[in-house]
């Protein structure tokens, strides 16, 4: 082989490697529908919190402008904020609202735009992607602008790809669709982030990788956007159930470290309605009724756990590295059998499968003694090892207190921010999360 040929071969290898070995990234699902009045600064505040734990970008879950007139404005705000924050975003078209074919005009609907392409979602989706995909805030994979969906696996990406360079990572509701659909998708997102046999069936925990294994098998090397979520409880009249999450956050992240998917999506950043947010309280988001169970119920401390796992995932490590001692706790506000006195809805489905326990994740540089005093119950002390360990303790009504000691000296701890109560007016199966 002459020098020229070697150089050419080397260039080919380098180029194809650069193309194929896209970098691992962690995205978080962001509900644009609740930030109608967000400013660029509001977006930047969220992006700063997300970046601080290693999140690379937001998947912008949104409805078309005929449903939420502010979608274009908020997409523009998000892309501007991302571009100015060294952060990435991509659009996640919510196919509860977008259509996988020609949108049919219904007399009386909100469609007033005279442009015909508003009535054709293939064109509308293409335009939305063209609007933003060349901006610096656009998340990319293998050179293409990432586009994703919530449901919507029947949408055909071929005409979109004819117009611009897109890496289509739609949600597939069933992993077998990876072998059946001919929609020009490049990879897939799974929504099976909670224990379920499919649909929204509620099964006992703990979470397994039974779904993930199928996505990996049937995607056959195409990128898998693996979902991770800390919790799920919701209490609307249209949906009123819990999934059995318990210590899902550390169980699931350990599965991610074991499986090392190409990409990860945290569900969610700010879905207060389903109680799986890890953002701060977002003072400027609008309230869809979820404040009944999300107000005053912080989840921020879950970001401390997430940060260590994101670093480990990106490093390809099988366990996270802990370089400072810490503790994160979470628990529900009442034992599960508590009857609430003034709720128009019954208790959520699935609560009979929950355990009345308090969860503690210790993040320790060396083994120590963890002592938990749950309400009126006697203090319980256990030895916990170094690294990230999640333990649980029988729930007692009253103040929750936590202490970690090493060599007989207390190193951290304090009282939980919420007392567990034996009475309630409305059902709340969200978790109160705090830490030391
Ligand atoms: C919320 O909006 C107000 C008024 O626009 C603004 O002053 C404040 O900084 C915003 N808060 C955050 C966290 O962005
Ligand atoms: C795309 O840009 C056009 C032209 O500025 C604008 O009218 C439209 O609302 C944008 N669409 C989206 C989804 O952002
Ligand atoms: C969307 O896809 C489904 C499944 O292929 C199909 O039944 C439906 O007709 C499609 N909708 C449109 C508007 O093309
Ligand atoms: C957003 O601002 C507009 C104009 O001030 C107001 O009419 C609307 O109610 C606000 N939306 C929410 C959800 O707060
Ligand atoms: C029960 O809830 C309703 C609102 O849903 C409220 O108006 C009423 O004051 C509540 N009653 C009691 C006794 O708290
Ligand atoms: C509590 O911890 C025990 C011991 O590790 C474990 O067997 C059990 O599954 C845990 N309970 C829950 C609800 O996670």
Automatic annotation (TrEMBL):
Residues 1-22 form the signal peptide. It comes from the Eukaryota. Keywords: Hydrolase, Signal. GO terms for molecular function: glucan endo-1,3-alpha-glucosidase activity. The keyword Glycoprotein does not apply. This is Glycoside hydrolase.
């Amino acid at each position: 082989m002459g020098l020229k040929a070697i150089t050419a071969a080397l260039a080919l290898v380098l180029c194809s490697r650069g193309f194929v070995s896209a970098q691992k990234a962690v995205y978080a699902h962001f509900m644009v529908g609740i930030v109608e009045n967000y400013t660029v600064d509001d977006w930047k505040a969220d992006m700063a919190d997300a970046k601080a734990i290693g999140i690379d970008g937001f998947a912008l879950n949104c409805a078309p402008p005929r449903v939420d007139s502010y979608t274009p404005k908020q997409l523009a705000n998000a892309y501007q904020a991302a571009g100015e924050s060294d952060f990435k975003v991509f659009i996640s078209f919510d196919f509860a609202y977008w259509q996988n074919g020609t949108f049919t005009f219904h007399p009386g609907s909100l469609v007033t735009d005279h442009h015909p392409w508003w009535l054709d979602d293939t064109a509308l989706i293409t335009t939305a992607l063209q609007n933003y995909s060349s901006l610096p805030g656009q998340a990319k994979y293998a050179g293409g602008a990432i586009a994703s969906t919530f449901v919507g696996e029947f949408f055909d990406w071929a005409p979109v790809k004819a117009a611009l360079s897109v890496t289509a990572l739609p949600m597939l509701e069933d992993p077998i669709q990876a072998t059946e659909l001919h929609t020009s998708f490049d990879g897939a997102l799974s929504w099976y982030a909670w224990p379920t046999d499919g649909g929204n069936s509620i099964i006992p925990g703990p979470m397994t990788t039974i779904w993930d294994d199928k996505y990996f098998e049937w995607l056959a090397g195409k990128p898998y956007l693996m979902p991770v979520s800390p919790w799920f409880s919701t209490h609307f009249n249209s949906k009123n159930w819990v999934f059995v999450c318990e210590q899902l956050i550390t169980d699931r992240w350990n599965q991610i470290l074991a499986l090392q998917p190409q990409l990860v999506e945290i569900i969610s950043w700010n879905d207060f309605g389903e109680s799986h947010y890890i953002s701060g309280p977002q003072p400027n988001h609008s309230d869809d009724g979820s404040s009944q169970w999300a107000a005053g119920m912080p989840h921020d401390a879950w970001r401390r756990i997430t940060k260590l796992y994101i670093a480990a995932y990106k490093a390809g490590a099988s366990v996270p590295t802990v370089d400072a001692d810490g503790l994160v706790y979470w628990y529900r506000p009442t034992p599960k059998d508590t009857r609430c006195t003034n709720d128009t809805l019954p208790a959520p489905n699935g609560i009979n499968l929950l355990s009345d326990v308090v969860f503690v994740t210790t993040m320790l540089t060396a083994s120590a003694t963890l002592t938990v005093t749950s309400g009126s119950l006697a203090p319980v002390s256990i030895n916990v090892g170094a690294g990230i360990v999640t333990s649980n303790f029988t729930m007692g009504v009253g103040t929750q207190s936590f202490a970690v000691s090493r060599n007989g000296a207390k190193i951290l701890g304090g009282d939980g921010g919420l007392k567990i109560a034996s009475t309630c007016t409305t059902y709340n199966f969200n978790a109160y999360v705090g830490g030391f």
